[in-house]
């Protein structure tokens, strides 16, 4: 659906261009989740939004979205493996929110093209 499209390649390029955010210390709010916890939570919220907004999706299409999102989370975990268990900084949090929104946009676009 999206993993084999140019938009996903562009998204991974965007991640690599911003890896410096994950290499330097920054402000951490008390009780901040780990990088991986935040990624999983924000991505999961966006998957639920996709499914809620696109009621025309059947079970097979929803399953495909979930499988591809699992692949995206796996890719993120691989790229960020050295810091996934560290508390997320304010800057990293903002980037992860933006990245998750871009992932949602990719799926919204793919779903719109199917209908």
> In angstroms, what separates the terminal alpha carbons?
13 Å
Largest sheet: none
Q: What integer is the average pLDDT?
A: 94
In terms of structural class, how would the helical and strand content be classed? mainly alpha
Domains (count): 1
Radius of gyration: 15 Å
What does this molecule look like?
The chain is mostly helical. It has one domain. It is built from 4 helices and no strands. Helix 1 runs antiparallel to helix 4 (90-114) and helix 2 packs antiparallel against helix 3 (59-79). The protein is elongated. The mean pLDDT is 94.
List keywords for this structure.
mainly alpha, 67% helix, 0% strand
Strands, helices and their partners?
Blueprint: H1 6-17, H2 35-53, H3 59-79, H4 90-114
Brief characterization of the structure:
With about 120 residues, this protein is mainly alpha-helical. The protein has one domain.
